[in-house]
Amino acid sequence: MPTTRRPTKEDVLSAYRRNALLGAAIRVFGERGFDCATMERIAEEADVAKGTTYLYYDSKQSIYDAALSSGFAELDERTREAIDRAPNFREAISAFMTARAEYFFEHRDFFRMYVAAIARQITSSRPRASEFQAVVDRQTRRLEQAVARAAARREIRRVDSAATAVAIFDLTRGLVARRMVSTGEFDLAEDVAFLSELVWRGLRKGPGLKAQDPGDKTIGKREKGQRKGIRDRDT
Amino acid sequence: MPTTRRPTKEDVLSAYRRNALLGAAIRVFGERGFDCATMERIAEEADVAKGTTYLYYDSKQSIYDAALSSGFAELDERTREAIDRAPNFREAISAFMTARAEYFFEHRDFFRMYVAAIARQITSSRPRASEFQAVVDRQTRRLEQAVARAAARREIRRVDSAATAVAIFDLTRGLVARRMVSTGEFDLAEDVAFLSELVWRGLRKGPGLKAQDPGDKTIGKREKGQRKGIRDRDT
DNA sequence: CGATATAATGACCGCTTGGTCATTCTGCTG
DNA sequence: CAGCAGAATGACCAAGCGGTCATTATATCG
User: Fold this and answer.
1) How many other CB atoms are found less than 10 A from the CB of residue A98?
2) Under an 8 A CB cutoff, do B166 and A178 touch?
3) Rounded Cα–Cα distance for residues A97 and A172 (Å)
4) What is the C-alpha to C-alpha distance for residues B25 and A90, in angstroms, rounded to an integer?
């Protein structure tokens, strides 16, 4: 441990400061949104003066980005663990939903930042879309792989794994968003059970569209049209 | 037609102005978001001076609210028509998805406002949540009724209709959001077909969880636990 | 204990923007 | 055409905020 050792005193302090700033940033951005959040408030929340903030981060934007990625990293880690731990695909679905929902409920401010960030991406016309897109994509990747594996193993029918993954992703997001604004009690396990069963049943092998209404034009073709689903392969 | 007649010249002009302002507002709020949008820009987009704007709307907030509700009203109308026209529940699902997706693609700016508004609601801590919540609720109400009807008619299994409705709602929202940011081509009908089939299969009658993994604790109870699902009965 | 280097501070600047209001314009009426 | 009422205008104001930097506090070392 000779060469790159020694976290000098400055390093430690610096790390501490950066961290405090990051936490403060998540809190403030979470409750005010990017535009309404002020650097003054973030600094004060981190117990430093405004000027100090600029010793650690270049700009409001940069501290925002840092706060966002730090949350994303943690969330991804949790998601990955949850999926890896699941013994089969059916449980992977509920594990995915549960892990994410729990993380978000434990970090409400981050969830708010997250939602605002997505909204921002949709709103602002492409400044650095692909970069952010990659982060979001990474979130569904693991799930997508799990879907593909399950299909290969014949646990489920053949489906577009990317489209399936984002569907599960969207359901989870919706669940969290709804429960986040509501004030009353609720049982997360129950919500997850409902949604994961819905999806599971939807993916089970079995007769396709039993011609309840044969004349429909949009339904019926596909069922193996892999590649080309919902997932957007941008660029 | 004697009493409340006569749209006086002023009335007509006033209506025209309000409308132009509303359109401009949707455009500007849509592409900049509430905070970054400026009254100056909205006025200019509507071909009036900034001061004129305040002759028709009290404040930035009030023109924002007006723009949002006008879009919501139109969207709700379209959604209602689509569901009503559907001959059965299965088609109601895809009609719902298609109608909303098409509306959003035709009014991208409104979709952006819409997403930002939701994000805003999640972000800001309860200023006038219930009021806005009601508008959002109305969007799933029709669908919820359709689900309940279908269950009663035995088209599908017994499920929590509110939870089912929001699930379909969230899938639709996700679909639109994803396609909105992506730049490439895509086939809406295909996306809708995939999702509506997923949901339809998920709702079909049939054996419940075929004990692929019996020992799970969160899955299994319910299947008729109406009332208490995802939908939040706030207040 | 000085001396020096580095970190922290917060008053301050420039700029943006929501909202106002004195002034100007428009078109109707007699 | 003159006079006038109401609509429209845009210069202006005050407030808020991101970012800077001269000044001050702190830590290290000889």
Assistant:
1) 20
2) yes
3) 6
4) 46
